[in-house]
């Protein structure tokens, strides 16, 4: 098509594009559009979370789930499909011979608050620690001791610790798992570039906020993967590598479990009770034998697609549900929310 000359842009090009483009103050023709800081309001799938939607977003783009119009939303079927692709892409996961698990006594959910140690032996009989020399594992483990577990005490990162966050993100982005996730989210118009995606991951997972007093004492990564103590109880702590390393040091005492997943290979899921150096965890669900990038990918996927909601996935043909919650009290960027928590809630929904 011949380009319109400058003096006739308003007349000729305006007529040509009238049916394809609308003013930035409306969502007409803009549902799922990538974020553009120059627009006064937005029509992407997270604008409701950020509080910056255009006035007609609800009528033109939103459905009952709080995301885009049904033709634009990430559907349950799409979530199940991408989670299966991520599951198959996890080549860094543990093999059967890499972990010997001793789950011992299973209790009923009604007994989980009893704080009774029903398992005399450790949960992990053996772990092939050569796994931990893989780049993503090594980068992940370097992050675990960068936090004070008690809320109410501000976190202050050294230059080295901040660099370790960058190394971790860099290493996981090299994996097939995270490439699958980015490709999916890019196709869904959630991110326009890989750098935008990585920058958002760093903020949502590692950005600090306050769970206690005024101190910036917590982050999504610390809560979910490293664990915290708040009001005399263990909160978060949903990672098998952290559990194994703390159990090996004598700081974690495995008490029992209420659920063991249906998978006959890794990753598997276990919902357990334990004592962490004097503090009790009533129910702590965790993937077992998964790579760090696998967990990071699934939790990120669910937070982006279903923040504050149950996110229904599929792993190896079995259903799995993950619950995430955003931190509502503070935001970053243009009103974006940090991850408050993410964990497996069931594999039967």
TrEMBL record:
Reported cofactor(s): Mn(2+)
Domain SMB: 23-65
Signal sequence interval, chain numbering: 1-18
Compartments, as annotated in UniProt: Secreted
GO cellular component: cytoplasm; extracellular region
One Pfam family hit: XendoU
Gene Ontology terms: biological process: female pregnancy; immune response; negative regulation of lipid catabolic process; post-transcriptional gene silencing; proteolysis
PROSITE patterns: ENDOU, SMB_1, SMB_2
Entry-linked PANTHER family: PLACENTAL PROTEIN 11-RELATED, URIDYLATE-SPECIFIC ENDORIBONUCLEASE
Alphabetical keyword list: Disulfide bond, Endonuclease, Hydrolase, Lyase, Manganese, Metal-binding, Nuclease, Repeat, RNA-binding, Secreted, Signal
GO molecular function: lyase activity; metal ion binding; polysaccharide binding; RNA binding; RNA endonuclease activity; scavenger receptor activity; serine-type peptidase activity
Top enzyme category: lyase
Enzyme Commission (EC) number: 4.6.1.-
InterPro entries: ENDOU, EndoU-like, EndoU_C, SMB_chordata, Somatomedin_B-like_dom_sf, Somatomedin_B_dom
Domain EndoU, first and last residues per copy: 75-348
Source organism, top-level taxon: Eukaryota
Oligomeric form and interacting partners: Monomer.
Protein name, as recorded: Uridylate-specific endoribonuclease
Record family assignment: Belongs to the ENDOU family.
Organism: Sciurus vulgaris
Catalytic activity: ribonucleotidyl-uridine-RNA = a 5'-end dephospho-uridine-RNA + a 3'-end 2',3'-cyclophospho-ribonucleotide-RNA
């Amino acid at each position: 098509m011949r380009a319109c000359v400058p003096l006739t842009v308003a007349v000729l090009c305006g007529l040509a594009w009238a049916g394809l483009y609308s003013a930035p103050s409306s969502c007409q023709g803009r549902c799922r559009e990538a974020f553009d800081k120059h627009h006064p309001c937005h029509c992407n799938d997270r604008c409701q979370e950020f509080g910056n939607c255009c006035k007609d977003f609800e009528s033109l783009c939103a459905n009952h789930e709080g995301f885009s119009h049904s033709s634009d939303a990430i559907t349950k079927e799409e979530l199940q499909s991408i989670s299966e692709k991520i599951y198959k892409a996890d080549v860094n996961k543990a093999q059967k011979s890499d972990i010997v698990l001793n789950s011992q006594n299973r209790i009923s959910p009604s007994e989980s608050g009893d704080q009774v140690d029903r398992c005399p032996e450790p949960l992990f009989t053996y772990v092939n620690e050569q796994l931990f020399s893989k780049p993503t594992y090594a980068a992940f483990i370097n992050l675990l001791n960068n936090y004070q577990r008690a809320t109410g005490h501000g976190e202050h990162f050294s230059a080295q610790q901040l660099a370790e966050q960058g190394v971790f993100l860099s290493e996981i982005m090299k994996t097939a798992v995270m490439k699958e996730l980015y490709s999916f989210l890019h196709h869904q118009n959630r991110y326009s570039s890989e750098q935008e995606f990585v920058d958002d991951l760093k903020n949502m997972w590692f950005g600090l906020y306050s769970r206690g007093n005024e101190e910036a004492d917590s982050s999504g990564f610390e809560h979910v993967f490293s664990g915290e103590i708040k009001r005399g109880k263990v909160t978060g702590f949903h990672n098998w590598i952290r559990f194994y390393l703390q159990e090996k040091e004598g700081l974690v005492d495995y008490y029992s479990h209420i659920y063991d997943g249906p998978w006959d290979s890794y990753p598997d899921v276990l919902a357990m009770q334990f004592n962490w150096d004097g503090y009790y965890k009533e129910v702590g669900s965790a993937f077992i034998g998964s790579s760090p990038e696998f967990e990071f990918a699934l939790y990120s996927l669910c937070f982006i697609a279903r923040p504050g909601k149950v996110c229904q996935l599929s792993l190896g043909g079995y259903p799995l549900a993950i619950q995430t919650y955003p931190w509502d009290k503070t935001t970053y960027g243009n009103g974006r929310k940090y991850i408050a928590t993410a964990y497996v809630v069931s594999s039967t929904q």
